[in-house]
Amino acid sequence: MKASPRKILLLLVVVVLVLGAAVYWLRREQHPAPAALTLYGNIDIRTVDMAFNDAGRIQHLGFEEGSAVRKGQVLAQLDPLRFQDAVDQATGVLAAARQQLAKLEAGSRPQEIAETRAAVASAEATLHNAQITYDRQRALAAAHLLPQQLADNAHQALKNARAGLDSAQQALSLAVQGPTPEDIAAARAQVKADAAALALAQRQLHDTTLIAPTDGVIQTRILEVGDMTSPAAPVLTLALNNPVWARAYVPETELGRIASGMRADILSDSFPGSVSRAGSASSRPPPSSRPNRCKPPTCAPSWCTGCASTPAIRRGGCAWACR
């Protein structure tokens, strides 16, 4: 009985599938998948030494070592008393400078101008009287009826009266014209300088409060309440939650299995069964070693600095788990 074409085609398909499976199995036996590369390393966390901008005595510390903090929380505070006094002083100086500027911009008051006019009139009367006295004394001295010294004294009094009138007239001119543009400009500059001094005093008062710049964990309390501190003396050490790197050292014989940009799964004995996906891997070798660093995309606040991890780096990527 002759076989149908459909049966022959089906038989050929089965034979091809069997042969393909056999070839795949043989190649797999000859070239097994590489085993996962297990590396041991540490978790590197960046830290920030928190210090005040000015010197002072610590009045308050808000957190203990190991406490988690959020961005914007108050970490510590200096005694603000003398900084507040500086703000009050700068406020008073600025107010006085503004009043002086307003006085110059307003010019002379009518009463001041009237006062200088009266002074001019008085000086004119004094000069007129001095002129009459001098004329009389000079005539009598010429007739030898008075000593010449009296005539000389009258002449000097006349000169003084003329100088007094000139001074009064100049004062009246200044009162009418008012302050010069240079005086007003100098007063405005003084107001700006005093305003800047007040802003600086207010900034120094604000800086008596130490604020967390980002989320993190208090790693070390270096100073305590009552200690004197300065900008060069950190008060706290803040361990940042991000970024966090897991660092491992790859043997020379395994370098061919590692490439920058590989993915990784991070495993840790502190969190059994927990696997974290690393964001990327990079190689930054020190002079005598070959490290591989994987950066986890997120890190739990409970992870500690310098902890040992057991990362498994596979050929398709690497991953870490941190304590």
TrEMBL record:
Domain YbhG-like alpha-helical hairpin: 79-207
Xref: Pfam families: HH_YBHG
Location of this chain's protein in the cell: Cell envelope
Cellular component aspect of the GO annotation: periplasmic space
Keywords: Coiled coil
Region (Disordered): 272-294
Biased composition (Low complexity): 272-283
Entries under SUPFAM superfamilies matching the protein: HlyD-like secretion proteins (SSF111369)
Keyword Iron-sulfur among record annotations: no
InterPro entries the record matches: HH_YbhG-like, UPF0194_transport
Protein name: Secretion protein HlyD family protein
Species: mine drainage metagenome
